[in-house]
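Appendix B. Chain record.
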Amino acid sequence: MPTALLEETDPQNDTTKTQALAKTSAVIPVSRQPPLPPRAPAAFDTLLDTKKFTNGADSDTVKVLYKQFVQRTAGSVQRVSFASWSLFSDDDAECLRGLFLHLLKTPTEGGGAGGILLEHLNLSGTQLTDKGAFLLVRVLSEIKSLRGLSLMNIQISVATLTALFDGVRLGGFQSLGYLDLSWCENLAKDLKDEDVEALLDIARIVTERGRRLTLDVQGWMQLLSISRKGWVALRKGQERLSEVEWIDSWEGTN
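C-alpha cells predicted for this chain:
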C-alpha cells in the first residue's frame, strides 16, 4: 500500500525510527486521501488562519507546537516519500519547497548544513509536473546531505532535466549518488540531441567529484526522438562514463 513516511534519526540512540506525517502511527495509508505535506511554519500559520477554533487561544497553541516540531524534528528527517500518492500535486511540491527553504535558513542543533539531514526524496508516481518540479529541484540542489532523488513515472520534461543539470553544474547536489528518471514519458519524448549532453554532463560532473552515480532511465528507449547522431553520442557517453551505473534498456539500439 502506498505510504508517505518520514524517517528521522533518534537523538537518544543511533537507531532509525519511522514516523508518519501526522505522527499518529508508523504508517498512514494514502491511496484514498489527499496529501498533507509538511509546511514551513509561516505557511502553516496561514493555513491555520483559515480554520475555525472555538477558542482563539487554541490556534496560537497549535502554531507554537508546530513550529517546535519543525525546529526539533523536521531537520533530522532523512527520508521523505510520497511515492504512488496520486493526489500529490505541484501545490504540494511547493509546500515541500517552502519547508526545505525554511530548514536551510534555520540551522538546528545536531543538524547538517542549513539544519537539514534529508538523504532521499521519493516523488515517483505522483502528479508532479515541471511547474512544481523545476523550483523544487533548485532548492534540493542546496541540500548537501541529499543522496537520492526518485522521480519515476511523473509528468516532467526537459525543463526539469535542465534544472537538475544547472544544479549540478553550479556546485549543487554535492552528495547525489542515485537519480531515478525512469518511465518519465514526457521527458523521453521531449529529449533532443542537445539535451543528451545535459544528461551526460550530470553524470560526468558527479563522477568527477569522486562519487559513484546510479542513473535510472528505464522506459525511454521506444520514446526517444533523438537522431542517430544523438544515439551515438549517448552510447559513447555511457561507455566513457564507466563509473556510472546506467539502468536502461538500450542494448542493441542503434
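Further analysis of this model is presented in Appendix C.
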